[in-house]
Write a structure and sequence with these properties.
4-stranded mixed sheet, 121 residues, alpha+beta
Length: 121
């Protein structure tokens, strides 16, 4: 199956999604899905949990975006960095409109590529 087909399927799958019917993770539970503790790799943005397990080249252990594996990386994405500051990775209340717009664009990007499999928060 081509990458374009996968992207289209994820976008269609996520378009009619009812988040209230999906499993809910705590932040601690989500941390287990980092590709090391558990072979599944989940990345969350704005509380939506995506299964990115098929993209080991980007999210697998030792890879560029593995820092996002097992967390809600909203803050990191909004700040355009992969190194945490002193706040929780999901905390976005202090970000400005521009940073929040960046996070919203990441949600659109992920919605087109990966299935939402749960929520976190």
């Amino acid at each position: 199956m081509s990458s374009t087909t996968d992207q289209t399927e994820a976008e269609i799958y996520n378009s009619n999604l009812d988040l209230s019917t999906l499993p809910h993770f705590t932040h601690e539970e989500l941390r287990q899905y980092n590709g090391t503790t558990n072979p599944k790799i989940y990345v969350a943005i704005r509380g939506r949990v995506y299964d990115v397990s098929q993209n080991l080249n980007s999210y697998g252990p030792g890879k560029a975006y593995n820092r996002l594996a097992g967390i809600d990386g909203s803050r990191l994405l909004g700040m355009n960095k992969l190194v945490s500051d002193d706040k929780e990775d999901w905390y976005t209340e202090d970000l400005d409109d521009s940073q929040n717009a960046i996070i919203d664009k990441w949600v659109i990007f992920f919605d087109k590529r990966y299935h939402v499999i749960g929520t976190v928060g």
